[in-house]
Design brief:
Blueprint lengths: L5 E4 L7 E5 L18 H4 L9 H12 L3 E4 L21 E2 L2 E2 L8 H23 L6 E8 L13 E4 L8 H9 L6 E3 L11 H7 L4 E8 L6 H22 L2
Parallel strand pairs: 2-3, 2-6, 6-9, 7-8
Antiparallel strand pairs: 1-3, 4-5, 7-9
């Protein structure tokens, strides 16, 4: 089977939503030998991909009748949610783990990975965004309950947005905060805007509705949790978009 750096599910679906999952996979492509020299235990961690996020994205796509674009390479190969000039585009050390396969990456190898993986995924996002004028991007990510030995993160879900564009995120946060069992973080556990990232490139610069969802990954490690969160978020996103458009 021919390798592709991205997967599109439901390309012909009619919803204005476009669901994206930048860190869907922990796959190391065949032309890199299928490994970066890390043990399987590290490749199963958040350092290699967003655990559970792909399952949530697929469920949202089904329920919202929305196309889903998923990466098909590990963020450790090259990070599709970073700008081309971002110094963290190819990580050599991440959350205590040295990445042997990245230790000697030079400018030529960086350029090759951009052409082989990053740019085809980015082009697929651009093509799907252009399918209609009213596209609203929902980027699905997950976060680890603890990073770098810091205190446990209390949020079940975070909603990220740029300071100047919360048109979709504001009503979504309102709807989530109305649910008494949830701890919701605005621009948690990460800042809401990273210059050059996928939302910046495909939503903020063109002026498209957008939001980035971060679900704590211990809640979505298994299929049942992924389905639960997809089912929970889908009607809230539909209502949030309706409010954003009024």
């Amino acid at each position: 089977m021919t390798y592709s750096p991205f997967e599109i599910i439901g390309e012909d679906r009619q919803s204005p939503f476009l669901i994206t999952c930048d860190h869907a996979s922990n796959l190391v492509p065949p032309d890199l030998g299928g490994t970066l020299g890390l043990p399987t235990s590290d490749m199963a961690r958040h350092i290699a991909y967003d655990v559970g996020a792909a399952g949530v994205a697929r469920t949202l796509g089904e329920l919202l009748d929305a196309p889903v674009v998923l990466s098909n390479f590990s963020r450790l190969v090259i990070d599709p949610n970073r700008g081309e000039d971002d110094p963290t585009l190819i990580m050599k050390l991440y959350d205590g783990s040295v990445v042997p396969g990245n230790r000697h990456v030079d400018a030529a190898e960086r350029a090759r990975r951009l052409d082989a993986y990053w740019r085809p995924y980015d082009a697929a996002l651009g093509r799907m965004c252009a399918r209609r004028d009213d596209v609203a991007i929902v980027a699905v990510h997950s976060f680890t309950p603890q990073l770098h030995g810091r205190p446990l993160r209390p949020w079940h879900i975070g909603v990220l947005h740029a300071a100047w564009d919360a048109r979709l995120s504001d009503p979504l946060i309102d709807l989530l905060e109305a649910q008494a069992d949830l701890v919701v973080g605005r621009n948690q556990p990460y800042p809401g805007h990273l210059p050059g990232d996928a939302i910046d490139r495909h939503a903020l610069r063109p002026g498209r509705h957008n939001t980035l969802i971060e679900v704590r990954n211990d809640l979505i490690e298994e299929d049942a949790g992924q389905r639960h969160w997809g089912n929970r978020l889908a009607p809230l996103l539909a209502e949030a978009l309706a409010r954003a458009q009024t």
